[in-house]
Structure formats: C-alpha cells, structure tokens
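Example (one chain per record):
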Amino acid sequence: MELKAKYTTDIKYSEVCVLDGDGNELDYYYVSNNGDTGRKTENVSFLLNPGTYYIGVRRDMWSNGTYSMNYTTEILHNTDVTYDDTIATAHVLPLTTNVNGILSKASGDKIDLYKLNVANPGMLKYNIKFDFRYVYFKLLDKDGNEIKSWYFGWNDNLKLGTETLDISLESGTYYLEVLRDGYDGKYSFSQTYTDIGSTEKEPNDTMEQAQPLKLGEKAVGMISIGGDTDFYKINVPSKRNVTFSLPSKIDDTYLYVYDEEGNEIKRCYGNWNDNTKKSTLQKIYKLAAGTYYIQVKGQYRDSSYGTYTLTAATTKAPTQIKITTIKKTKKNWSGNRSIYVKLGKSSYTEGYQVYLARNSKFKGASKYVAESRSFTIGPLSKGTYYVKVRGYSENSDGERIYGKFSTVKKIKL
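Predicted structure:
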C-alpha cells in the first residue's frame, strides 16, 4: 500500500519517520522549514508491504514547534505483496501477464524477483512504466547468474519512465529481477509471450551437436539472448550450387559454412533494415559433394538476438522470362532509333542477359547485360532485329546460373 501524509509544521528542521511493528526505524522524510511564513506543508509518501507500522515526527536538537498531520492509505494491488528477493521466494509469473510492484526502503524491499518457466522457444515483449528515478531490469538464468542487465532512468520533467524490451529465450527456467537504485517507487509492466514455432533442437551449440538439415528443408530457430549459437549439418550428394537463405529479426547476423573437418570455407553477413527491423541474407555457394556444417550466430552477445529461418537448397535457375513490350523509340538527332524492351517478372533472377541479332538464328549476335526489367538498346541503324532475353543469378565465385531464353521477338526499325 501507499501511505500518504500531509504534514504542516513551523519546526525549522524535522523528519517524518516510519517504523516497523517493533519500533525500528525504516525510513524518514526530511523537512526544512525556511519559508517566510514560518510554516511549511509537505506531502509525504511511504510505500509499504502488508504489516504493522508506526508513523512519527522528530525534530533536531535546536528546533521546536508545532505540527499537524493527516494521512490516508491507498491499496496498490501490487503483485509482490510478500518478500521475493531470492530465487527461493520468487513469484512464478504466467508468460503473458501484467505486473504491478513497489520497491521501498521503508519495507526493506530493494529487489523483486519473478520466475519464468519457458516451455517452448519464444519472444517476450515488455512494456514498462516506473515513477522513480532509476531502476534495473535483469535477466537471470536458472541458477541466478546474470544473462543481461538494462538500466533505465525516468523523464525528469514527467517524473515518469517508460521503456520497452524484446527478449528471445530458449526453453528453460529464467528469473526477471527488478532492482531499485537508491530510490523508492512504483513500477508496472505487461509481459507478452509469443511461441515462434521453432523446429530447432537444443542443444545445437557445437558441431558435434549439429542438427541434421536436408537440402531444401526449412529450419525455424532463434538466437537467444546471452551469446547463443546454432549449428546445422547438411549433405551435398554431388557438386552443385547451393543457395543459403537466412531472413531474421537479428541485428548483426553471421552465417558460416564449414567443411567436414571443421575448416571455415564461407562466411557472410546479414543486411539489417532499421525501418523494418529485419535482416536479409542470401548467398549462392558452389560446393563439392560432401558433408558441411552451417553456423548461425549474432555478432554481439548482448544485442544480437532474435528469430530466424534458415534454408540451404540446391540453387534454382531463373524462371523463363516473357518480353511484355518491345517497340522502337523516336529518332535521335542523327536519325537513328533504339529498341525499348520491358520484361515480365522472373523468380531467382539477379540480372538479365540480352541477345540482339540481325537473323533469327542469332549468328554473330551482340550480347548485353541489363539490371532492370525495362531497358533500351541502341541507337541502331535501320533494319530488322531479333531479341531474346534470359535471367541469371551469380554464385560467390562470380559464375552465372542462367534460365531459359524468352520467346524470340522480331522488330523492324
């Protein structure tokens, strides 16, 4: 509960005190009366857990005078109504819940501990409010060892702090610790849990524990907070291009590929989009037949964590392209025209190879590279031209993987 007192006095220096049921002082509020009126009014507040308390007033040895005091109590409906400053006394929280709490010097309450039992890998989202100057939120493992700590301060103008947290956790037991930094106050937070539907099998933190993954199979996993890493094992039956795809919600993501002896042969880094809060990573590697290990990890122990989807699949050739528009442009200053071409969409395509010839068999054809689905060829002299296009992608060695050519288009300039 909150004990609120309105204290008015003409004593120059005095203190409003709160004592426990045995008369031991727990906390006090110092009042200095230096005003011109000779009297001062202060609103005094103490946060208390259930129990018996005494409230008192004392002066310093050089001051005397009169005072008056009215007080009220307000039930706070806080979750932590009993002491919970050890793992043994921690409150067990549902994974989706709302919590109200106090941290009070008067109650000898510096720490609140909450126990979290996470059955399946998932994300915990917190919306936090607090009305004291500084507060710590800490995540502890099942043995009480700190995994990660956050230190928050309030808005000095509003006398209120608001924060959000997103935490990724593997299956297991954890503790959330709320710790005051010398200041009393109230806090509240909402805790929301989302199961990510993980297919990852922990432990898979080493090559020896690597989870088997078939070519083309999708693995849904998570890099949990505190320096997690995940290993997978694939078998490549024959020499081929393999596309590694790793979309994630992890800032600073790395993907490593190792050979059967554990030698690193490939490494790539995810591209983080700060607007979408997502990372994209896709690379094509040419691999010989054999067994390979894939490692997924974040760069930073305390900040690179979140969910991911991993696939390693035989690289698919670009799908066949359709030329949707082909037309001649207006004459330029020298009287020549160009050919404008627009293409339909094609999957697995990074660029386009264009063939231009004066004959339908494309003998002596000129070859061009286009990076977009619309482009212009020319200027060209008068005559009849034949055009065909195919998409391509490139592996990490710069070798191109081509799709089928489009239907040939004929145009006269």
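Caption: The CA atoms of residues 369 and 394 lie 13 Å apart.
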